[in-house]
Amino acid sequence: MLDDMTADRSVAQSLPKPRNPDEPYRICIVCLGNICRSPMAEVVLRTELAEAGLAGEVIVDSAGTGDWHAGEAMDSRASAELSRRGFDGSGHVARQISGHWLDRYDLLLAMDANNYEDLLALAPGQPGVRARIRLLRSFDPDAPAGAEVPDPYYGSPADYAEVFELVAAAAAGLAGRLAAEFPTGSPS
Ligand code: 4NP
Hints:
Layout: H1 4-7, H2 9-13, E1 25-31, H3 37-51, E2 58-64, H4 76-84, E3 107-110, H5 113-121, H6 127-130, E4 133-135, H7 157-181
Parallel strand pairs: 1-2, 1-3, 3-4
Helix pairs in contact: 3-7, 4-7
The protein binds 4-nitrophenyl phosphate.
4-nitrophenyl phosphate is lined by residues 31-37, 64, 68-69, 151, 153.
């Protein structure tokens, strides 16, 4: 069950203010296993930001709420889908997020409502952190409120293709928001 923050589109699409304006803006994209959705989104968003000249201003990484795949490479179906679209997912190593990491990020992006709730549960009594946890697709201007990126792990190649489409649309929207926040970036 998502709270009011994600149901309110104007709040959901706003970008949390940088914690420290003198340092890069740090984003962590979070799914369950950190081998499919969040590393795909990480690679796509990082590429978008580099193309917008924001590689130095915004740092993107990813993690999973579960520990089962920590230390593993990206799922071969996810990296195959990235390759098919011209992206390279070969450098990924899966990680599990822990509560004491949350303070390190300006924005934490959950793929689905379960990831979102799991992140909130890692930040009890930390309203400053809670306000920085959002659904990734809240930055896709064409997505409905509460839209998720569905878990493709038990699915087909078509499900991985859908994940790509969803994360690419959200990454484009988010990169646009970040470009407005950090106008010093220049297209490379
Ligand atoms: P992800 O996908 O959360 O997009 O990385 C999954 C990966 C592994 C599992 C579930 C989802 N699993 O159950 O092991």
